[in-house]
Amino acid sequence: MDEQDFWTRMEFRIRAEFQGFADRHLRWYWCDGLVAEQYELLTADPCIRGRAWSGSTGQEPWRFVLRIGRGARTRAEIPWTALLPGEQATGWLSADPRRRIMLISPLVGHPE
Question: Which residues contact 98 (CB under 8 A, 6 or more apart)?
């Protein structure tokens, strides 16, 4: 899986994860796009930051932080396949609709 494919698949995984949220209001949220802007690979908590279109319409401007774990020093070394949560994984997405931010931690998700 390459980076472009990852972002498209992550968009669909976010939609599915929202549907399983305990908060009934958030169950109606979805994601209609992700754009990576900052690759912070050499920090204590490596991540990718960017913009998302999300919310109840899927068109509200949000921010996201994708925690990627340690190991990748360059974009070419990012393990895209390993960062995509499996279909049964849950608990890897936190959303704050008031602040319009998502924290995506695919390495801490757990099976249903």
Answer: none
pLDDT tens digits along 54-112: 998 889 999 999 999 988 999 999 999 999 999 889 999 999 999 999 999 998 755 55
Nearest CA to 50 out of 90, 109, 6 is that of 6
- Provide the residue range defining the domain that includes 66: 3-111
User: Closest Cα partner for 99 from 71, 62, 50, 65?
Assistant: 62
pTM > 0.70: yes
Q: Which helix (H) or strand (E) holds 6?
A: helix 3-19
Identity of the amino acid at 19: Q
* Per-residue pLDDT tens over the stretch 75-86: 999 999 999 999
Strand partners, 93: 104
The β-bridge partners of 39 are: 48
Number of domains in the chain: 1
Q: Which residues contact 4 (CB under 8 A, 6 or more apart)?
A: none
| Residue whose entry in the numeric block shows the structure tokens 């695919």 | 106
